[in-house]
């Protein structure tokens, strides 16, 4: 019987009715009490790390989770983190960067409806997560609605439906059904040892462009953030007529701010070199996102800036695939 450590962080799955709406309140042992299947599947030890709505999750809490897993790594065969859905994708990505060299599964799950409600997806998701945490695979995964998603590719697509998460620009890892795992794609097993690296720089901002965006916005951001992610249009176009953003982007890069050009399009990634509006901004020392999603880009840039202030090194780290966050054709092989 596999030994699993269940770490609870709050979220809808553990929520109860409060005077101002749903609020996390259940302990992890309470979560397990709703399912008899869990006790049969593995030897589960429960621990509560925090009890918060994931809207209130901060980078410092990612560090707490990663450190807890590292501290208990040798004592358990797998790990499950119960988490609110709203920022779950950011957390699974952050753990993927801070916990490299995993040869055991770290599974993040949650639910759209509290486990105490009559009609809930929480019991299935918790059972499935523990089931997959017993598998002989390494890495960080999201398990939700029977789907297993690599941690850096999970994006919340729906606010109410049980199939809230999808795997973006990457195959699903597996499906869990009635405590049986069927693989669609299996990650390579690592021969490395676990490396914990929790040096994060949270000074990262995401700016979504829209027609009419004022270049002056960058003057306010320059002194507050060390990294700015620009969600541009299509393949990565940035306006250079009328309200041209190029001079301000040039100023940012010269001031030592890491500027990453992403796309508002969720699927297929961006290509700065396809159109003139992309090539003009690519002449500056900007980082390109390839087909990474925002939930991965944000913690990865925090992690990269936590390692170094050298923008060329930051660019290399961001454009190198880590934990399958970036398709190989977009960057250098890991």
Please provide a written account of the structure.
It is a single chain. This protein is of the alpha/beta class. The protein has 2 domains: 3-196, L-asparaginase, N-terminal domain (Rossmann fold); 204-330, Rossmann fold (3-Layer(aba) Sandwich). The chain has helices spanning 28-33, 36-41, 59-71, 88-98, 122-133, 217-222, 246-254, 276-282, 294-307, 311-318; strands at 3-10, 15-18, 21-24, 43-52, 78-82, 99-100, 105-109, 139-144, 147-150, 154-156, 165-167, 174-177, 180-183, 195-196, 204-208, 227-232, 258-263, 287-288. An 8-stranded mixed beta sheet has the order 4-1-5-7-8-9-12-13, sandwiched between helices. A 4-stranded parallel beta sheet has the order 15-16-17-18, sandwiched between helices. A two-stranded antiparallel ribbon has the order 2-3. Helix 7 links the parallel strand 16 and strand 17 (258-263). Helix 3 crosses helix 4 (88-98), helix 4 (88-98) runs parallel beside helix 9 and helix 9 (294-307) runs antiparallel to helix 10 (311-318). The longest helix is centred in the C-terminal third of the chain and has 14 residues, at 294-307. The chain is globular. The two termini are 34 Å apart.
